[in-house]
Design goal:
This protein is of the alpha/beta class. The chain has two domains: 1-43; 53-145, RlpA-like domain (Barwin-like endoglucanases, Beta Barrel), CATH 2.40.40. Helices cover 24% and strands 26% of the residues. It has helices at 13-42, 125-131, and strands at residues 53-61, 82-84, 93-98, 104-111, 119-124, 138-145. It has a six-stranded mixed beta barrel.
């Protein structure tokens, strides 16, 4: 009888070995997927409101990025009340208050940033107009998370 004889199942030893290797590979991939999911579950995600209020400098961005995709996938519109924040989840509503003149506005986080040291939030041109910071470009602000039922653009 040859080395590759037909076994009791009607399959040759070679095909059984191929099937075993394939099953071993699939098991390894499944194990790798489980480990990747476990790691993803353990990594920290942006937390909604760990700190109730945050103070720092805000800046605004507008026409240079008009129409480009934001980190959330939507198109940036400088004429909406939106903001970029490093950690808050997309869709989070923030109350941004200008500490110099007392004006405040509600914005929705739809992008990541700012990427300049010392800044805590970037707001759209429309929000910057409401805050009275178009001329200066930056302003000292306090930001706080508010309920999601609040409408962006309202005073806070």
């Amino acid at each position: 009888m040859s080395r590759w004889h037909v076994g009791y199942c009607g399959k040759s030893r070679r095909s059984k070995q191929k099937q075993f290797r394939k099953m071993k590979k699939q098991t390894w991939l499944a194990s790798l997927s489980i480990v990747a999911l476990a790691i993803a579950a353990c990594t920290s995600t942006p937390e909604l409101a760990k700190a109730k209020a945050q103070s720092g400098k805000a800046s605004w961005y507008g026409s240079g990025l008009q129409g480009r995709k934001t980190a959330s996938g939507e198109r940036f519109n400088m004429n909406t009340y939106s903001a970029a924040h490093r950690t808050h989840a997309f869709g989070t509503k923030l109350c941004v208050e200008n500490l110099r003149n007392g004006r405040g506005v509600i914005v929705r986080v739809n992008d990541r940033g700012p990427f300049v040291r010392g800044r805590v939030v970037d707001v759209s041109r429309k929000a910057a107009q409401s805050l009275g910071m178009i001329g200066s470009g930056t302003a000292a602000v306090r930001i706080s998370v508010i309920g999601s039922k609040q409408k962006a653009g309202r005073r806070c």
